[in-house]
Structures are given as C-alpha cells and as structure tokens.
Amino acid sequence: MSTRTGGRQAMSELKLRRLLEHNARLKDDLARPRVRVSEASASLIRYCKTTKDHLVPSVWGPVGKSEDPYGQTSGGKCCSVQ
Fold it and tell me: Which of 28, 65, 78 has the alpha carbon at shortest distance from 20?
C-alpha cells in the first residue's frame, strides 16, 4: 500500500507543478502590453495614408523614374547575352 500512496503523492505534485506553470504563463500573458483595436486600426490607416506605395499608382499617381525604387536602373542594360 505504501507504493500506492507514493504514486498518488507524485501525481498530485505533478498536477500542482503543471497548474503552477500554467498560472505563471497566464500571469505573463496578463502582463503583456495591449493595444486597443481602435488605436491599432487608426495607426494602420495613418500609416497607409502617409506611406507612398509605388506599386499602387492608381492611388498615388504616376511615379517619376528617379523616385521609383522598383524601376530599371540607369545602367540601361539589365542582362547580357553571349
């Protein structure tokens, strides 16, 4: 019978340790800084309105060749064939 008592105690200690670890994770989650959805949305909208995207000319208008980071380089040739 002493082995049963030892096994039960070990199981109880294991369950307690798991609960304590879970509780610690929950406390860490609770301490994590949060941002309201309305603030995050406003920040995203502000970023999209102020950051020019050269791949969407219908919104920002045509891009000058000197401003276009995705345009061809001034080198002229992009590849060579031999």
Answer: 28
